[in-house]
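I hope you will forgive my troubling you with a question about protein structure. The matter concerns a single protein, recorded as an amino acid sequence and a row of backbone structure tokens. Please examine both parts with care and let me know of anything in them that strikes you as inconsistent. Here, with my thanks, is the record as I have it:
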Amino acid sequence: MQTGHSYDDVALVGCEVNKDLDQFLDRTWALLKNYWQQNQDPEEKVVNVAPAETIIDAVKIKLNENGDQSDVSLDDLFASIEQTLKYSVRTSHPRFMNQLYGNTDIFGIMGELVTTFCNTNIHTYEVSPVFTLMENEVIQRFCKYMGYEEGEGVFAPGGSICNIYGLLLGRNHACPEIRLEGFGGKTLVAFTSAESHYSIQKGANLCGVGIRNVINVKCDEIGRMIPAELDAAIAKAKAEGKTPFFVNSTAGSTVRGAFDDINAIADVCEKHNVWFHLDAAWGGSAAMSQKRKHLLAGSNRADSITWDPHKGMGMPLQTAVILTKQKGVLKAVNEFKAEYLFKDANLEKIVARGGEAAKNAAAELSEKKYDLGDKTFQCGRHIDATKTWMMFKIYGDKYFSDRVENGFRNVEYIVAEMAKKPEMFELVSAPMYLNVCFWYIPPSARGMAKGSVERKQEIDRAVQSIRRSMHMDGKVFINYQPQGELPNFFRPILCNSNTTTKDVDIMLQQIEEFGNKL
């Protein structure tokens, strides 16, 4: 296919351009619609597991070795799309409970499609006027939910990147000279929950702080960072001549869904004048529910917040925002004033000289206030606001609240069902959010002493084996993992708005059935 040509000029091997391309597009759209509808069908598998070699052959993944145009027809390409869908995981299926995201929404998908058709960037207003205004509007909506009255923010490519923004903001708050001069011998120290996301360590590496200068603060029995331990850790770092600069608190931890006591953490940060970042990538969506927003009490006291609406709100991957309580701080740490993009200084000079030419310069300068590029450390940036704006526009807030509440109903149901069989199921800790962490106790371990090495090993082996059998079966897709000294446990995530109590029953039945076969 030639590039840079109009629709009518597309040249494809063995096809009558307009007619065949139209048919291909119509067939592909019909295929995608059917795939979408099948996602709601409980009789469909979540995944068709196959060896990599089978998938490579079925999809025809290998590219033409010499890079020349091949003899692949539109029919061949359509067949590859069919096979791609066949072997991809149906993450919108009601029994996909594996990750911190679930079914997405057709209006969000349409928003992404509009964005892709426009194929533009979002660093300056002039190249992306509509999407820039959409991003500003949606960011203000998110700020409102978190209690920020004068906040701002930007979309970023995932929660990990948002957390790295938080680290940069904290570093610039504590030592603004580092941005230009480097560390100059300073040892900066960050503090985070022992059960926080690993992006804090990765971010410390990228920011030059060093992974060993991230202090993991002890958590309580349900996974919440202990404020007194944080206070003591910061005091210790100060006594050692180090510079505490950043605290990461978690609202909805990755594994157990734990919410730190945000107000208590904020008190410690204010006491020590340390930047307070709240990682609400997973738990931020609790703000959409009147019944659950208390989990985020104190979020307005955080200096910056990470939130991934592609998780609890069902927006298409990826949808992530970094929010700040104060305006201007993102620009202060990221601004570079690249003249080929951000012409403010030049325009100001032309305006100052006056004359007829100043009118056009003044008009262009007035638009520069909308530019987003210097708030980010990226130049090119994918537009994620359209799908978000479209879902808010069509649904309002209630849809998102209903999603969250559906998840909590399923959490309450699974806990109640497992309580009926205490010899078989055991919670790792009481769930605070939409993660349910539990052990299946195999028959071989039920007579063993709790806490014994032998019992842990039996549970560890059973959970992994059952989950692998479930995965190969393809009807239910849930996760499992160890944590610290704990043996493997199951961790279904109940954020999918299509998931019902019947799906939960099927999951528990499968665990029991495969467990009995061990």
